[in-house]
Amino acid sequence: MSKAVDRSSRRMASLDALRGIIMILMALDHASFFIARMHSREFWGTPLPDYASVLPFIMRLASHICAPGFFFLMGVGMALMARARLNGGWPHRKLTRFFAVRGILLMTLQLLVENPAWGLAFVFGAPGSFISRGGPLPGSGEGLAVYFGVLFALGAAMLVWAFLMQLRWQLQLAFALSAILFTQWVIPGSDAASSLYHAFVRLLVIPGRTGHVVVFYPVIPWLGVTGLGVLLGRWLAETSNGNPPLTWAGWCGALGLVVFVLIRSIGGPGNLHPPAPGWIGFFNLTKYPPSVAFICLTMGVNCLLLWALSMKGVVQGALFKTMAVYGRAPLFFYVVHLYLYGIMGWLAPAGVAPAPMMLFWLAGLVLLYPLCKRYDYYKRRSSIASPWRYF
Questions:
Q1: C-alpha angle 261/306/328, rounded to 5°?
Q2: Given this model, what pLDDT does residue 5 score?
Q3: What are the CA-CA distances from residue 276 to residues 162, 185, 267, 293, 360 (Å)?
Q4: DSSP reduced 3-state for 218
Q5: Alpha-helical runs (H) found in the chain
Q6: What is d(CA 289, CA 328) in angstroms, rounded to the nearest whole number?
Q7: What is the pLDDT of residues 33-54, one digit of tens each?
Q8: Helix crossing, 292-309 with 66-87: angle to 10°?
Q9: Which residue of 117, 189, 283, 359 sits 20 to 30 Å from the alpha carbon of 99, by its own alpha carbon?
Protein backbone atom coordinates (compact mmCIF):
# COMPACT_ATOMS: atom_id res chain seq x y z
CA MET A 1 0.00 0.00 0.00
CA SER A 2 1.38 3.40 -0.92
CA LYS A 3 2.00 6.12 1.62
CA ALA A 4 -0.61 8.32 -0.06
CA VAL A 5 -3.30 5.65 0.21
CA ASP A 6 -2.27 4.95 3.80
CA ARG A 7 -2.68 8.63 4.69
CA SER A 8 -6.09 8.73 3.03
CA SER A 9 -7.19 5.64 4.94
CA ARG A 10 -6.14 7.19 8.25
CA ARG A 11 -8.03 10.38 7.43
CA MET A 12 -11.26 8.54 6.66
CA ALA A 13 -10.94 6.37 9.76
CA SER A 14 -10.46 9.47 11.88
CA LEU A 15 -13.76 10.84 10.56
CA ASP A 16 -15.50 7.64 11.68
CA ALA A 17 -13.82 7.78 15.09
CA LEU A 18 -14.82 11.42 15.65
CA ARG A 19 -18.37 10.59 14.64
CA GLY A 20 -18.30 7.71 17.12
CA ILE A 21 -17.17 9.99 19.96
CA ILE A 22 -19.97 12.37 19.06
CA MET A 23 -22.54 9.54 19.12
CA ILE A 24 -21.35 8.40 22.56
CA LEU A 25 -21.55 11.91 24.05
CA MET A 26 -24.95 12.43 22.44
CA ALA A 27 -26.14 9.18 24.03
CA LEU A 28 -25.03 10.51 27.43
CA ASP A 29 -27.12 13.64 26.97
CA HIS A 30 -30.15 11.65 25.83
CA ALA A 31 -29.78 9.12 28.65
CA SER A 32 -30.03 12.12 30.97
CA PHE A 33 -33.28 13.07 29.25
CA PHE A 34 -34.87 9.62 29.37
CA ILE A 35 -33.47 8.17 32.61
CA ALA A 36 -32.37 11.06 34.86
CA ARG A 37 -35.34 12.99 33.43
CA MET A 38 -33.31 16.17 33.24
CA HIS A 39 -32.50 18.28 30.22
CA SER A 40 -31.16 21.76 29.51
CA ARG A 41 -32.51 24.34 27.07
CA GLU A 42 -30.20 27.15 25.98
CA PHE A 43 -32.61 29.27 23.94
CA TRP A 44 -32.17 32.82 22.76
CA GLY A 45 -34.23 35.42 24.61
CA THR A 46 -34.84 33.36 27.77
CA PRO A 47 -32.55 32.68 30.77
CA LEU A 48 -29.82 30.11 30.33
CA PRO A 49 -29.83 27.02 32.58
CA ASP A 50 -28.67 27.38 36.16
CA TYR A 51 -26.56 24.52 37.56
CA ALA A 52 -26.37 23.72 41.27
CA SER A 53 -23.50 21.24 40.80
CA VAL A 54 -20.63 20.73 38.37
CA LEU A 55 -21.35 17.23 37.01
CA PRO A 56 -24.62 18.05 35.16
CA PHE A 57 -22.98 21.09 33.59
CA ILE A 58 -19.90 19.14 32.48
CA MET A 59 -22.14 16.49 30.93
CA ARG A 60 -24.12 19.11 29.05
CA LEU A 61 -21.02 21.03 27.98
CA ALA A 62 -19.42 17.85 26.61
CA SER A 63 -22.53 17.10 24.57
CA HIS A 64 -22.40 20.52 22.90
CA ILE A 65 -19.90 19.28 20.31
CA CYS A 66 -22.48 16.79 19.03
CA ALA A 67 -24.85 18.87 16.91
CA PRO A 68 -22.10 20.92 15.22
CA GLY A 69 -20.15 17.71 14.71
CA PHE A 70 -23.11 16.03 13.03
CA PHE A 71 -23.59 18.84 10.52
CA PHE A 72 -19.87 19.34 9.94
CA LEU A 73 -19.15 15.65 9.32
CA MET A 74 -22.21 15.36 7.10
CA GLY A 75 -20.73 18.11 4.95
CA VAL A 76 -17.37 16.34 4.88
CA GLY A 77 -19.07 13.08 3.87
CA MET A 78 -21.06 14.77 1.12
CA ALA A 79 -17.91 16.22 -0.44
CA LEU A 80 -16.00 12.93 -0.23
CA MET A 81 -18.91 10.98 -1.66
CA ALA A 82 -19.36 13.51 -4.45
CA ARG A 83 -15.75 13.09 -5.54
CA ALA A 84 -15.93 9.28 -5.37
CA ARG A 85 -19.21 9.01 -7.29
CA LEU A 86 -18.20 11.52 -9.96
CA ASN A 87 -14.93 9.66 -10.45
CA GLY A 88 -17.01 6.48 -10.73
CA GLY A 89 -19.04 7.88 -13.60
CA TRP A 90 -22.08 9.41 -11.90
CA PRO A 91 -23.35 12.56 -13.65
CA HIS A 92 -23.89 15.64 -11.48
CA ARG A 93 -27.68 15.39 -11.76
CA LYS A 94 -27.66 11.84 -10.35
CA LEU A 95 -25.50 12.95 -7.42
CA THR A 96 -27.79 15.91 -6.75
CA ARG A 97 -30.83 13.64 -6.84
CA PHE A 98 -29.20 11.19 -4.40
CA PHE A 99 -28.44 13.92 -1.83
CA ALA A 100 -31.88 15.51 -2.28
CA VAL A 101 -33.70 12.21 -1.76
CA ARG A 102 -31.58 11.37 1.28
CA GLY A 103 -32.26 14.82 2.73
CA ILE A 104 -36.00 14.39 2.31
CA LEU A 105 -35.74 10.94 3.90
CA LEU A 106 -34.00 12.38 6.97
CA MET A 107 -36.70 15.03 7.31
CA THR A 108 -39.38 12.34 7.09
CA LEU A 109 -37.64 10.17 9.69
CA GLN A 110 -37.74 13.10 12.10
CA LEU A 111 -41.52 13.31 11.91
CA LEU A 112 -42.43 9.64 11.66
CA VAL A 113 -39.69 7.77 13.55
CA GLU A 114 -37.78 10.11 15.86
CA ASN A 115 -40.64 12.15 17.30
CA PRO A 116 -42.52 9.15 18.78
CA ALA A 117 -39.34 8.13 20.63
CA TRP A 118 -39.23 11.38 22.60
CA GLY A 119 -42.71 10.67 23.88
CA LEU A 120 -41.44 7.61 25.75
CA ALA A 121 -39.91 9.92 28.37
CA PHE A 122 -43.41 11.01 29.34
CA VAL A 123 -45.15 7.66 28.81
CA PHE A 124 -42.85 5.91 31.30
CA GLY A 125 -42.19 8.90 33.58
CA ALA A 126 -43.96 9.64 36.82
CA PRO A 127 -46.08 12.83 36.75
CA GLY A 128 -43.96 15.87 37.53
CA SER A 129 -40.69 13.94 37.41
CA PHE A 130 -39.18 15.75 34.43
CA ILE A 131 -36.87 18.68 35.18
CA SER A 132 -36.06 21.20 32.45
CA ARG A 133 -33.20 23.60 33.10
CA GLY A 134 -33.38 26.99 31.44
CA GLY A 135 -36.10 29.43 30.59
CA PRO A 136 -39.35 28.69 28.76
CA LEU A 137 -39.46 28.14 25.04
CA PRO A 138 -39.62 31.42 23.11
CA GLY A 139 -43.12 31.96 21.74
CA SER A 140 -46.15 30.11 23.02
CA GLY A 141 -48.62 27.34 22.30
CA GLU A 142 -50.71 24.67 23.97
CA GLY A 143 -51.29 20.97 23.55
CA LEU A 144 -49.40 18.52 21.40
CA ALA A 145 -46.81 19.94 19.03
CA VAL A 146 -44.86 18.80 16.01
CA TYR A 147 -41.18 18.81 16.91
CA PHE A 148 -38.56 19.81 14.35
CA GLY A 149 -35.20 18.64 15.65
CA VAL A 150 -31.76 17.70 14.47
CA LEU A 151 -32.75 15.08 11.87
CA PHE A 152 -35.06 17.54 10.15
CA ALA A 153 -32.36 20.21 10.06
CA LEU A 154 -29.76 17.70 8.84
CA GLY A 155 -32.08 16.64 6.05
CA ALA A 156 -32.88 20.22 5.09
CA ALA A 157 -29.19 21.13 5.08
CA MET A 158 -28.39 18.14 2.85
CA LEU A 159 -31.24 19.07 0.54
CA VAL A 160 -29.95 22.62 0.12
CA TRP A 161 -26.30 21.62 -0.24
CA ALA A 162 -27.27 19.03 -2.86
CA PHE A 163 -27.70 21.98 -5.22
CA LEU A 164 -24.58 23.87 -4.04
CA MET A 165 -21.95 21.16 -4.38
CA GLN A 166 -20.82 22.36 -7.82
CA LEU A 167 -20.07 25.93 -6.68
CA ARG A 168 -16.51 27.20 -6.45
CA TRP A 169 -15.06 26.83 -2.97
CA GLN A 170 -14.92 30.60 -2.53
CA LEU A 171 -18.68 30.85 -3.03
CA GLN A 172 -19.28 27.91 -0.71
CA LEU A 173 -17.19 29.56 2.00
CA ALA A 174 -19.03 32.86 1.56
CA PHE A 175 -22.40 31.10 1.77
CA ALA A 176 -21.43 29.15 4.90
CA LEU A 177 -20.11 32.19 6.80
CA SER A 178 -23.05 34.34 5.68
CA ALA A 179 -25.54 31.78 7.02
CA ILE A 180 -23.86 31.78 10.44
CA LEU A 181 -23.51 35.57 10.67
CA PHE A 182 -27.01 36.22 9.28
CA THR A 183 -28.46 34.24 12.17
CA GLN A 184 -26.64 36.38 14.72
CA TRP A 185 -27.86 39.53 13.00
CA VAL A 186 -31.58 38.67 12.83
CA ILE A 187 -32.07 37.12 16.28
CA PRO A 188 -33.99 39.72 18.32
CA GLY A 189 -33.52 40.70 21.95
CA SER A 190 -35.19 39.10 24.95
CA ASP A 191 -38.12 41.52 24.74
CA ALA A 192 -39.28 39.61 21.64
CA ALA A 193 -39.06 36.16 23.23
CA SER A 194 -42.84 35.87 23.54
CA SER A 195 -43.51 36.93 19.93
CA LEU A 196 -45.32 34.43 17.73
CA TYR A 197 -43.15 34.27 14.65
CA HIS A 198 -44.52 32.47 11.61
CA ALA A 199 -43.78 28.74 11.64
CA PHE A 200 -41.69 29.15 8.47
CA VAL A 201 -39.53 31.75 10.23
CA ARG A 202 -39.12 29.31 13.12
CA LEU A 203 -37.94 26.59 10.75
CA LEU A 204 -35.49 28.89 9.01
CA VAL A 205 -33.82 30.98 11.69
CA ILE A 206 -35.64 31.83 14.96
CA PRO A 207 -36.30 28.70 17.05
CA GLY A 208 -39.10 28.39 19.57
CA ARG A 209 -42.80 27.57 19.59
CA THR A 210 -45.65 28.95 17.54
CA GLY A 211 -48.91 27.11 18.13
CA HIS A 212 -48.34 23.45 17.37
CA VAL A 213 -44.87 23.90 15.83
CA VAL A 214 -41.76 23.54 18.02
CA VAL A 215 -38.35 24.16 16.48
CA PHE A 216 -35.02 23.58 18.21
CA TYR A 217 -32.75 23.45 15.15
CA PRO A 218 -33.52 26.15 12.55
CA VAL A 219 -32.01 25.42 9.16
CA ILE A 220 -30.01 28.54 8.23
CA PRO A 221 -27.27 28.54 10.91
CA TRP A 222 -26.71 24.81 10.47
CA LEU A 223 -26.37 25.29 6.72
CA GLY A 224 -23.27 27.28 7.57
CA VAL A 225 -21.74 24.55 9.73
CA THR A 226 -22.50 21.97 7.03
CA GLY A 227 -20.77 24.20 4.50
CA LEU A 228 -17.59 24.28 6.59
CA GLY A 229 -17.62 20.48 6.46
CA VAL A 230 -18.10 20.51 2.68
CA LEU A 231 -14.99 22.68 2.36
CA LEU A 232 -12.88 20.34 4.49
CA GLY A 233 -14.23 17.36 2.54
CA ARG A 234 -13.20 18.97 -0.74
CA TRP A 235 -9.76 19.58 0.68
CA LEU A 236 -9.44 15.98 1.81
CA ALA A 237 -10.62 14.66 -1.55
CA GLU A 238 -8.14 16.79 -3.49
CA THR A 239 -5.07 16.14 -1.33
CA SER A 240 -3.20 12.86 -1.65
CA ASN A 241 0.30 13.78 -0.52
CA GLY A 242 2.31 16.46 1.22
CA ASN A 243 1.27 17.92 4.57
CA PRO A 244 -1.89 16.07 5.69
CA PRO A 245 -4.90 18.44 5.69
CA LEU A 246 -5.94 17.23 9.13
CA THR A 247 -2.93 19.06 10.52
CA TRP A 248 -4.63 22.20 9.27
CA ALA A 249 -7.83 21.06 10.96
CA GLY A 250 -5.86 21.28 14.20
CA TRP A 251 -4.78 24.83 13.45
CA CYS A 252 -8.36 25.78 12.56
CA GLY A 253 -9.52 24.27 15.84
CA ALA A 254 -6.98 26.27 17.82
CA LEU A 255 -8.05 29.44 16.00
CA GLY A 256 -11.69 28.71 16.81
CA LEU A 257 -10.90 28.44 20.52
CA VAL A 258 -8.95 31.71 20.46
CA VAL A 259 -11.88 33.48 18.80
CA PHE A 260 -14.25 31.92 21.35
CA VAL A 261 -12.20 33.31 24.26
CA LEU A 262 -12.11 36.75 22.63
CA ILE A 263 -15.87 36.82 22.00
CA ARG A 264 -16.69 35.74 25.54
CA SER A 265 -14.12 38.07 27.10
CA ILE A 266 -15.44 41.09 25.20
CA GLY A 267 -19.05 40.06 25.86
CA GLY A 268 -20.53 41.78 22.81
CA PRO A 269 -21.88 40.51 19.48
CA GLY A 270 -21.59 36.81 18.83
CA ASN A 271 -22.81 35.73 22.28
CA LEU A 272 -26.63 36.11 22.18
CA HIS A 273 -26.33 35.77 25.99
CA PRO A 274 -23.52 37.71 27.70
CA PRO A 275 -21.20 35.62 29.89
CA ALA A 276 -22.21 35.28 33.53
CA PRO A 277 -19.71 35.39 36.41
CA GLY A 278 -17.56 32.33 37.06
CA TRP A 279 -16.20 29.65 34.76
CA ILE A 280 -19.59 27.97 34.35
CA GLY A 281 -21.07 31.28 33.25
CA PHE A 282 -18.20 31.71 30.78
CA PHE A 283 -18.91 28.34 29.13
CA ASN A 284 -22.71 28.45 29.45
CA LEU A 285 -23.64 29.27 25.84
CA THR A 286 -26.65 29.81 23.62
CA LYS A 287 -27.34 26.73 21.50
CA TYR A 288 -30.78 27.45 20.01
CA PRO A 289 -29.84 28.96 17.61
CA PRO A 290 -26.07 28.46 17.91
CA SER A 291 -24.28 31.68 18.75
CA VAL A 292 -20.95 32.47 17.10
CA ALA A 293 -19.31 31.74 20.47
CA PHE A 294 -21.03 28.34 20.59
CA ILE A 295 -19.87 27.48 17.06
CA CYS A 296 -16.30 28.65 17.72
CA LEU A 297 -16.00 26.56 20.89
CA THR A 298 -17.63 23.39 19.61
CA MET A 299 -16.06 23.46 16.17
CA GLY A 300 -12.72 24.28 17.72
CA VAL A 301 -12.95 21.15 19.86
CA ASN A 302 -14.22 19.05 16.95
CA CYS A 303 -11.36 20.12 14.69
CA LEU A 304 -8.75 19.50 17.38
CA LEU A 305 -10.20 16.04 18.01
CA LEU A 306 -10.13 15.32 14.28
CA TRP A 307 -6.47 16.31 14.13
CA ALA A 308 -5.61 14.18 17.18
CA LEU A 309 -7.51 11.18 15.82
CA SER A 310 -5.61 11.35 12.52
CA MET A 311 -2.28 10.59 14.20
CA LYS A 312 -0.85 7.20 13.34
CA GLY A 313 -0.43 5.95 16.90
CA VAL A 314 -4.04 6.84 17.76
CA VAL A 315 -5.44 5.14 14.66
CA GLN A 316 -3.92 1.83 15.66
CA GLY A 317 -5.45 1.82 19.17
CA ALA A 318 -8.29 -0.48 20.25
CA LEU A 319 -10.33 2.43 21.66
CA PHE A 320 -10.09 4.22 18.31
CA LYS A 321 -11.42 1.15 16.50
CA THR A 322 -14.30 0.88 18.96
CA MET A 323 -15.29 4.49 18.39
CA ALA A 324 -15.16 3.95 14.64
CA VAL A 325 -17.69 1.11 14.87
CA TYR A 326 -20.27 3.49 16.31
CA GLY A 327 -19.27 6.17 13.82
CA ARG A 328 -19.83 3.99 10.77
CA ALA A 329 -23.53 3.49 11.62
CA PRO A 330 -24.62 6.97 12.75
CA LEU A 331 -28.23 7.04 11.57
CA PHE A 332 -28.85 3.49 12.81
CA PHE A 333 -27.28 4.36 16.17
CA TYR A 334 -29.28 7.57 16.42
CA VAL A 335 -32.70 6.01 15.88
CA VAL A 336 -32.09 2.84 17.93
CA HIS A 337 -30.51 4.60 20.91
CA LEU A 338 -33.53 6.86 21.36
CA TYR A 339 -35.89 3.91 21.70
CA LEU A 340 -33.39 1.92 23.76
CA TYR A 341 -32.91 4.64 26.40
CA GLY A 342 -36.59 5.51 26.19
CA ILE A 343 -37.51 1.95 27.14
CA MET A 344 -34.79 1.89 29.83
CA GLY A 345 -36.56 4.87 31.36
CA TRP A 346 -39.36 2.48 32.39
CA LEU A 347 -36.96 1.21 35.07
CA ALA A 348 -36.68 4.67 36.64
CA PRO A 349 -40.06 6.43 36.34
CA ALA A 350 -39.11 9.03 38.96
CA GLY A 351 -35.67 9.62 37.45
CA VAL A 352 -32.24 9.01 38.96
CA ALA A 353 -29.25 11.17 39.88
CA PRO A 354 -26.67 11.91 37.15
CA ALA A 355 -24.01 9.54 38.55
CA PRO A 356 -26.13 6.32 38.57
CA MET A 357 -27.70 7.38 35.29
CA MET A 358 -24.29 6.89 33.70
CA LEU A 359 -24.56 3.14 34.39
CA PHE A 360 -27.65 3.03 32.17
CA TRP A 361 -25.74 5.03 29.55
CA LEU A 362 -22.84 2.56 29.55
CA ALA A 363 -25.19 -0.41 29.43
CA GLY A 364 -26.89 1.07 26.38
CA LEU A 365 -23.54 1.53 24.63
CA VAL A 366 -22.64 -2.09 25.29
CA LEU A 367 -25.92 -3.25 23.76
CA LEU A 368 -25.55 -0.95 20.76
CA TYR A 369 -22.01 -1.99 19.85
CA PRO A 370 -22.74 -5.41 18.25
CA LEU A 371 -25.86 -4.02 16.58
CA CYS A 372 -23.89 -1.19 14.97
CA LYS A 373 -21.13 -3.57 13.92
CA ARG A 374 -23.61 -5.94 12.29
CA TYR A 375 -25.48 -3.11 10.56
CA ASP A 376 -22.26 -1.64 9.19
CA TYR A 377 -21.22 -5.06 7.88
CA TYR A 378 -24.58 -5.52 6.15
CA LYS A 379 -24.55 -2.04 4.62
CA ARG A 380 -21.01 -2.43 3.31
CA ARG A 381 -22.00 -5.64 1.54
CA SER A 382 -25.00 -4.02 -0.14
CA SER A 383 -24.85 -2.77 -3.70
CA ILE A 384 -23.99 0.85 -4.37
CA ALA A 385 -27.48 1.12 -5.89
CA SER A 386 -29.18 -0.42 -2.85
CA PRO A 387 -31.82 1.65 -1.01
CA TRP A 388 -29.84 0.95 2.19
CA ARG A 389 -27.25 3.42 0.92
CA TYR A 390 -29.73 6.18 1.77
CA PHE A 391 -29.51 5.13 5.43
A1: 135
A2: 36
A3: 40, 22, 10, 14, 33
A4: coil
A5: 3-31, 54-63, 66-87, 92-109, 115-118, 120-123, 150-161, 169-186, 199-204, 219-238, 245-266, 278-283, 292-309, 312-315, 318-327, 330-344, 354-381
A6: 28
A7: 999 999 999 999 999 999 988 9
A8: 60
A9: 117
Query: Contact 247/176 with Cβ under 8 angstroms?
Result: no
Q: What single-letter DSSP state applies at residue 216?
A: S
Asked whether the beta carbons of 89 and 240 are under 8 A apart, the reply is no
Instruction: State which H helix or E strand residue 50 sits in.
Output: none
What is the tens place of the pLDDT at every residue in 181-228? 999 999 999 999 999 999 999 999 999 999 999 999 999 999 999 999
Structural domain including 145 reads 3-390
What does the pLDDT read at residue 3? 40
> What's the mean pLDDT when you consider all of the chain?
90
Contact predicate 207/199, CB 8 Å: no
User: Which pTM value belongs to this model?
Assistant: 0.93
Count the helix, strand and coil residues of the chain and give each as a percent rounded to the nearest 5.
70, 5, 25
Domains contained in the chain, number = 1
Bridge-based pairing state of the strands 131-133 and 38-40: parallel
Model pLDDT, residue 242: 45
What is the rounded distance in angstroms from the CA atom of residue 173 to the CA atom of residue 177? 6
For residue 213, the cross-strand partners are 146, 210
Report CA-CA distances (Å) from 193 to 101, 188, 325. 35, 8, 42
Say which residues have a Cβ less than 8 Å from residue 361's Cβ, sequence separation at least 6: 27, 28, 31, 35, 341
Tell me how far apart the alpha carbons of residues 122 and 34 are, in angstroms, rounded to a whole number.
9
Cα separation, 304 vs 298, whole angstroms: 10
